[in-house]
Design brief:
Layout (H helix, E strand, L loop, with lengths): L2 E3 L1 E3 L5 E6 L11 E4 L14 E5 L11 E4 L12 E4 L4 E6 L7 E3 L22 H11 L6 E5 L8 H13 L4 E5 L8 H11 L3 E6 L5 H8 L4 H14 L4 E7 L7 H11 L5 E6 L5 H4 L1 H4 L7 H12 L5 E4 L23 E2 L16 E2 L14
Parallel strand pairs: 3-4, 4-5, 5-6, 9-10, 10-11, 11-12, 12-13, 13-14, 14-15
Antiparallel strand pairs: 1-8, 2-6, 3-7, 7-8, 16-17
Helix pairs in contact: 2-3, 6-9
Length: 377
């Protein structure tokens, strides 16, 4: 998540709230964090739960919870953002109203250990789901898309079903995307419960890393995961639940991309979308980089063949996290601006690139990128 660092006053415990640039109404002050604009200093008299002010503003003594940040940072904060104010002055953005890539992390736990996972599994913080419900209450009713991610969300079982149902009750027209490895969906009744809770605006995205069990299980770090996932996919097909596939491109997956594409077409014709994803070199991917790294420029022939194979068979395809300057021009139409707004970055020469506004950019969290990046004239 995106963070800003400031100086806190009178904050002993984290404060969750939604940003407002105006004083809240008498009955709407709970969970409102008022941001004081640079041209309107002072004025900390409203009923807001807390305040964010630019540095140099006078902070009166007393019990008002305040975070001071550099004035130029105020431009990165918008009314409608949901943030967490930490006692150490950090501002964590849990939902950004101007971003199309908002998601809620439901759990850190996982039943796999993928070799390229950007964040390894760990124990959950206390009251994590309670916090997610609170965020859900605060985010804009105009939200068009929200992702549910982890860890592995299906480990929550019935609690996940209830949360999906809560999302649908508040946002009946919103597209809800559930990111899961699909292993627990081998239980048909559980799959049915999830589909019923989110129908008709739920899309389930599942990773499949190979056309065979040995190579898929090696990437997932879990024996038997291939057959669990295939069983889960078949269950979703039985109940007509929309589902998409994802595969991350690295040394262990690129060699059989054509066979992968043929396997999907022949065995999973119900899949509505296939995404080929550039690897984020962070977390476990960074630790295993010697085993995984291939310059994305060097696997474009494999990627081109796999994409062409699926497109010719009327399978919808997208390419995520790969820059336009390393993709063959024939693949540009499939490339998406996929990197979350809070962690996208560009190299200095990208400012002179005529395709910057169409390009996904780079992971700011990554430790390595292609050596063949260049500006497009």
């Amino acid at each position: 998540m995106r963070e800003l660092k400031g100086v806190s006053h009178n904050i002993e415990n984290p404060i969750l709230g939604v940003i407002s640039t105006k004083p809240p109404r008498i009955f709407g002050s709970r969970n409102t964090i008022q941001m004081i604009a640079p041209d309107k200093p002072g004025k900390l008299r409203s009923r807001a739960t807390a305040f964010i002010v630019g540095d140099g503003a006078e902070c009166p003594k007393g019990s008002r919870a305040i975070v001071q940040v550099a004035k130029e940072q105020l431009s990165f904060i918008h009314a409608g953002d949901v943030v967490l104010l930490e006692p150490d002055g950090r501002i964590k953005f849990l939902y950004e109203i101007e971003s199309p890539h908002n998601s809620l992390l439901l759990t850190h736990r996982c039943n796999c250990r993928c070799v390229m996972c950007p964040q390894g599994p760990c124990d959950d913080m206390p009251d994590l789901m309670k916090t997610n419900y609170a965020i859900l209450d605060l985010i804009s009713p105009k939200t068009e898309h929200l992702g549910l991610t982890g860890g592995e969300p299906t480990l929550l079982e019935d609690e996940l079903v209830e949360f999906i149902r809560a999302c649908r009750q508040k946002f009946p027209r919103m597209l809800l995307t559930l990111l899961t490895n699909g292993r627990k969906l081998r239980d048909l009744e559980f799959s049915k419960n999830i589909a019923k809770a989110g129908f008709p605006n739920l899309m389930i995205e599942i990773p499949l890393y190979a056309d065979n069990d040995r190579e898929h299980d090696r990437v997932m770090g879990a024996a038997g995961s291939f057959y669990d996932t295939i069983a889960g996919l078949r269950n979703l097909a039985l109940i007509r639940q929309p589902v998409g596939l994802r595969t991350v491109l690295h040394r262990l997956t690129i060699g059989r991309l054509t066979q992968y594409a043929e396997f999907v077409y022949r065995n999973l014709p119900f899949v509505s979308h296939v995404a080929f994803m550039g690897m984020e070199t962070h977390g476990l991917a960074a630790k295993n980089l010697d085993e995984l790294w291939v310059d994305p420029y060097d696997y474009q022939e494999y990627l081109y063949t796999a994409v062409k194979h699926l497109v010719r068979r009327n399978v919808s395809v997208s390419i995520y996290n790969l820059q336009l300057c390393i993709l063959p021009k024939e693949l540009w139409q499939f490339a998406r601006r996929s990197i979350s707004t809070w962690k996208v970055s560009y190299l200095p020469f990208c400012d002179q690139c005529k395709m910057k506004t169409e390009c996904c950019g780079l992971f700011a969290t990554g430790i390595r990128h292609s050596s063949f990046l260049k500006k497009i004239n």
